[in-house]
Design goal:
Helicase, Ruva Protein, domain 3, single chain
């Protein structure tokens, strides 16, 4: 009886943990153009709590709320620009995957190139500092001593 009981418990756990049973967001649109508008917007807007994910790919609660808000605005007949303006007003330029070039976002556009340039300069300075210089020459006494050591070594090996 215990084997049967374990099988039943295992089956129940397996069925309850099935990912296919997870909740799926379903949005119904009046027109296919609205659905395309929705897909475009959720792919163009960033999830604010995720790292480098758009709203379409994120499972965060905030992303679900933002997707629902976008859906409702589309149902109200708002344009892409109106929805984007609303999101930027509410959350700032960070919500955009491609923020506009302006004084507040200039570092976002120039920063990577600036950091790369600084890294290259540091690397070049480091490499030049490691470059071997001229070996110091031997004085006559050291040269004569080295010659004697070499001759002694030759005599031992013969």
């Amino acid at each position: 009886m215990s084997k049967t009981w374990l099988r039943i418990v295992g089956l129940v756990i397996g069925l309850l943990s099935n990912p296919a049973l997870a909740g799926v967001e379903v949005h119904r649109f009046d027109e296919p153009a609205q659905e395309q508008q929705y897909k475009h917007l959720v792919n163009e807007l960033r999830c604010l709590v995720c790292q480098n994910q758009n709203l379409a790919d994120s499972n965060a609660d905030l992303a679900q709320d933002l997707r629902q808000e976008i859906y409702e605005m589309i149902r109200q007949g708002k344009s892409n620009q109106e929805i984007i303006d609303f999101m930027v007003t509410r959350y700032g330029d960070f919500v955009l995957y491609r923020p506009p070039v302006k004084s507040t976002t200039l570092f976002l556009w120039i920063g990577p190139f600036l950091i790369l340039g600084i890294g290259i300069v540091i690397l070049l300075v480091y490499i030049r500092g490691r470059r071997p210089g001229q070996a110091p020459g031997l004085d006559a006494a050291s040269h004569e001593r080295a010659q004697r050591l070499l001759q002694d070594e030759d005599k031992k090996s013969s």
